[in-house]
Write a structure and sequence with these properties.
Nuclear Transport Factor 2, Chain: A; globular; 4-stranded antiparallel β-sheet; single chain
Length: 64
Amino acid sequence: LEVIIAHHHLQHPHGQLLAAELEFEEGQYVYALKFLSQEGVVREFEYDARTGELWHVEHEGEDH
């Protein structure tokens, strides 16, 4: 988890981590990380817990 968060901050240096959860989706564990952007937008990033690969991004209140 620490490696995923550190890697995320390299790509999005101004985001503030709000929450981190381990979830089980589609037969795999994923880390769901909520970040607050510099613009005040909350986004949830889902990363494969095993590989660290980014799976999905959604804006708060939306599901893409």
